[in-house]
Write a structure and sequence with these properties.
Number of strands: 5
Strand content: 15-25%
Oligomer: single chain
Order of helices and strands: EHEHEHEHEH
Shape: globular
Number of helices: 5
Helix content: 40-55%
Largest sheet: 5 strands, parallel
Structural class: alpha/beta
Length: 117
């Protein structure tokens, strides 16, 4: 069985490292890591991952804007991670076509269902 290919986008390297470890433990294949939304879009266009997991608050292009591009171009579904759960962010995420929204701190066992959906 082919492993699900994932790109991680978060401007904090420590979070990317933790996330990579969790995803690897869960059997996912992390094919890329980036620190901003624009890089996430460019890398996803190139690598065509099965899913992109990204933070909302990032420099250059936020996670919701990046998710909108990835959804519109039918490149990859997006799971958003955020320390914020304000209604307007959730609303923007839904309009951008995001498939799941996890609020930090999330646990390893919450990742898999979000990705699999």
């Amino acid at each position: 069985m082919e492993r699900t290919r994932v790109i991680i986008a978060d401007d904090e390297s420590l979070i990317r490292m933790d996330l990579r470890e969790m995803l690897t433990n869960l059997g996912y294949l992390v094919v890329g890591e980036v620190a901003d939304g624009r890089s996430a879009v460019n890398q996803a266009r190139e690598l065509r991952p099965d899913v992109v997991i990204m933070d909302i608050k990032m420099p250059d292009m936020d996670g919701i804007e990046a998710a909108k591009v990835l959804t519109e171009e039918k490149i990859s579904p997006v799971v958003l991670l955020s320390a914020y759960s304000q209604r307007d962010l959730v609303q923007r995420a839904r309009e951008a076509g995001v498939v799941a929204y996890l609020v930090k701190p999330y646990r390893e066992e919450e990742l898999s269902p979000a990705i699999e959906v």
